[in-house]
Write a structure and sequence with these properties.
Oligomer: single chain
Number of helices: 5
Radius of gyration: 24 Å
Strand order of the largest sheet: 1-2-7-5-6-4-3-8
CATH topology: Cyclophilin
CATH architecture: Beta Barrel
């Protein structure tokens, strides 16, 4: 009888400890969530928020209100390029600022270069870039082409995802700069223009002249060493 009583008491103590552990765990989770919600400057991580087709629009709408910067600087192997992001292309501006602050673009490449046409960047041939994308999420952005912008020289635009894509949604991790002197107006309506080069078109012109292979990838990799927010 005494042994049975000790056994029951031990079970009771274990149960109490488990309840206290669950209470502390729940309290810890609540504190973390409150911290994330209260800190508008905190970047989302994989543990906080994995971006998807379902949550991306609401996330970017909120992110854009809290992060109003619209000017960035690309540091490349050939010099720097300053870009102004258009405020009325709100989802694409917010997306680019978010990726810049998360340092997604650092050490990606200009992987598609066509002289007298465009230079396209934001991708890479290493696994690090792929892992960065996976940590951020999988989503596309809407085609927002009706704001009056044209694919003039120096405009920044976002390519469509290379899949069956009737709505021409954009691949959010990549961008191209129009280098062609007379512009590339046959692209109007198919891609979203969301910014323009305000300094450094000479760097764009230099990159556009490098030798490439048959897939337009430069024979010598051209890295975007860093993109940072200016203001």
């Amino acid at each position: 009888m005494r042994i049975l009583l000790i056994f029951v008491m031990n079970l009771f103590l274990i149960s109490c400890q488990d309840n206290k552990t669950r209470e502390k765990t729940n309290e810890g989770i609540e504190n973390i969530m409150k911290s994330v919600q209260n800190d508008s400057t905190q970047e989302p991580t994989k543990a906080d928020l994995l971006l998807t087709e379902k949550n991306i629009m609401n996330f970017l709408l909120d992110y854009g209100k809290k992060n109003k910067e619209n000017t960035v600087r690309l540091t490349t192997d050939y010099g720097t390029i300053d870009i102004l992001l258009f405020e009325n292309i709100k989802f694409h501006r917010a997306n680019f600022i978010m990726l810049t602050k998360k340092k997604y673009f650092d050490n990606t490449q200009f992987y598609r270069v066509i002289s007298n046409f465009v230079i396209q960047g934001g991708n890479s041939d290493d696994r690090i870039t792929l892992k960065k994308r996976q940590a951020i999420g999988k989503y596309l952005l809407p085609n927002d082409h009706d704001k009056g912008y044209k694919h003039d020289r120096g405009m920044i635009s976002m390519p469509s995802k290379n899949i069956e894509n009737p709505y021409k949604k954009a691949s959010p991790f990549e961008f191209f700069i129009v280098q062609q002197q007379q512009g590339a107006h046959h692209l109007d309506g198919d891609y979203t223009i969301f910014g323009k080069v305000i300094r450094g078109m000479d760097v764009v012109d230099t990159i556009a002249t490098v030798p490439t292979d048959k897939s337009d990838w430069p024979l010598q990799n051209i890295f975007i060493r860093e993109i940072k927010v200016l203001k």
